[in-house]
Amino acid sequence: MAALVRIVRVLFTLAAAFGSLLAVLAFLGIASPYLDVFNHLQLLLFGGTLLALLLTPLLLPEGRARAFLLAAVATGFVASSAAVIPEALGSLAPRPPVPTDGRPVLKVMTHNLFGLNYDMVRVASVIAAEAPDIVALQEFFPEQSSELDPLLRPIYPFSVHCSGGKRANIALYSKLPFERSVDGACSNTNDAGERTAHIVARFTLPDGRQVSVVTTHIDWPVPVERQQAELAALTQTMAGVPGPALLVGDFNSTPWSYTLRRFAAATSLERETRSLLTYPLIFHYFGDWRPTLPFLPLDQVFSKGALAVHEVRAGAQTGSDHLPVVVTFSVGTSGA
Fold first, then answer.
1. Strand pairing of 245-250 and 210-217?
2. Any bridge partners for residue 179, and if so which?
3. What is the DSSP letter of 52?
4. Per-domain residue ranges for the chain?
5. For residue 261, with 0-12 CB atoms within 10 Å meaning exposed, 13-18 middle and 19 or more buried, which class applies?
6. Residue 170: CA atoms inside 13 Å, Cβ hemisphere, count?
7. Quick check: helix, strand or coil at residue 244?
8. pLDDT for 128-164, tens place per residue?
């Protein structure tokens, strides 16, 4: 029994020290994009260091080892808290009320369908229940489009599709007509060399106001250079999009990362998604796709210019590994 207790203490000490080290390295990600990758684990690091802080006095006897570990996990917890707590508090901030002056109020749904999700009837039913004015889709592959497109087109007659590499398969459907900005970032040649794409749609609302809706799908944060290059290209694109504008999509980056914060600063965009956990709903383990609890806020909504965002929330499950994100907004007042 004593040997088992020693093993448990050793394993706990190693795990707690390792988690605390990752939290500190993530904090230092401000100096290196390679260390910034650890910021995507912040929710796990926050919970892990907090748990270690509570359990250390219970599992380890008094002495230097316990004092050292307590100092280490406290440092890790403080480092993680610096990222997690401000984001959580930001999610509690009130949003501007829906206007009562007759100004149009639009609803947008953005959703990563997941390439292995083939239940398009379920997807269409969730979209119908939300009844958004605009639908932005990522990981929307041809075999999914062949089934979902006929279900959406009677309600959403205006659309544009991009295809290519995995992240380049995106689409935008709308009840309202729009003008598409042709900037070479949306291909329909199925060229696998096109890793990503984006769609820029300019809408003229019934009251004459104009707004742009942009959607994209960014790669995972590793390799670091690839995601950095994709965000740099998107930064250039957004510089040419006049406000007001709404940018939505799967960024494969969490708001705890310095990379996403720098992107928002470089584009003068206001991130509207705060602590909105959307991924993963399912994950492949033990030889099959199985349910999980989402712990990564990867799907983002940004606003620009005179645009007021009234609501941002997760939608219902569609069979994807992502939850959809639903945003309601109006044009004409500051979204800040």
1. parallel
2. 202
3. H
4. 2-90, 105-331
5. middle
6. 28
7. coil
8. 999 999 999 999 999 999 999 999 999 999 999 998 8
218 and 237 in contact (C-beta within 8 Å)?
Answer: no
Tens digits of per-residue pLDDT, 32-81?
999 999 999 999 999 999 999 999 999 999 999 999 999 999 999 999 99
Structure tokens at 73: 């996990």
50 neighbors 97 (Cβ within 8 angstroms): no
Please state the pTM of the whole predicted model.
0.93
Instruction: DSSP letter for 318, please.
Output: -
b/e for 272-306, b at 16 or more Cβ within 10 A?
bbbbbbbbbbbeeeeeeeeeeebbbbbbbbbbbbb
Task: Indicate if the pLDDT at residue 308 is higher than 70.
Answer: yes
pLDDT-derived band of residue 309, with 50, 70 and 90 as boundaries? very high
Distances (CA, A) of 197 to 96, 237, 254: 32, 11, 20
309 near 281, Cβ under 8 Å? no
CATH number of 105-331: 3.60.10.10
Virtual torsion, Cα 329, 330, 331, 336, nearest 10 deg:
-50
Q: 269, 224, 223: which is closest to 249 by C-alpha?
A: 269
Letter for the amino acid at 112?
N
Cβ neighbours around 20 below 10 Å, total: 26
Token representation of residue 333: 């007042």
